[in-house]
Write a structure and sequence with these properties.
Shape: globular
Strand content: under 5%
Order of helices and strands: HHHHH
CATH superfamily: Nucleotidyltransferases  domain 2
Helix content: 55-70%
Number of domains: 1
Distance between the termini: 11 Å
């Protein structure tokens, strides 16, 4: 695919979050599942925004993955395949950021799986390796 909008800054930041989530998910001693979930959500958010930038589709300043997905699907209906993964990651923009609730190891594993699927599909749709 020919490049349209400059997605490099978005992909760079998304990949930082991707690596952070994977690194933190591998941590066996003193695990940090809250941070895994947050980094996974951030990776998905930035990849969705990269997709929208590529297609020169304006988007609001938001962390709402479903809102961003809706905009993406308006450009490419095939993107809707990641909806279940987006729903999995949706609460992690704000959940677990403050005392009161904590993510479980199982939630962190599900978040990583969802993040990987979102990343893979969007990279494919953008023509990235």
């Amino acid at each position: 695919m020919a490049r349209r909008g400059d997605i490099r800054p978005w992909v760079y930041k998304a990949e930082e979050d991707y690596r952070a989530a994977l690194t933190l998910a591998r941590k066996r001693r003193d695990p940090v599942p809250d941070n895994v979930c947050f980094s996974a959500q951030q990776c998905a958010e930035k990849y969705l925004k990269a997709f929208l930038v590529y297609h020169r589709k304006r988007f609001p300043k938001t962390h709402d993955l479903l809102e961003l997905l809706k905009l993406g699907v308006s450009v490419d209906p095939l993107l809707d395949v990641i909806r279940p993964d987006i729903r999995e990651l949706l609460p992690y923009a704000v959940a677990f950021r403050y005392p009161g609730e904590e993510a479980t190891g199982e939630e962190a594993q599900r978040a990583v799986r969802a993040m990987k699927k979102v990343r893979d599909i969007i990279r494919e749709r953008l023509g990235l390796p």
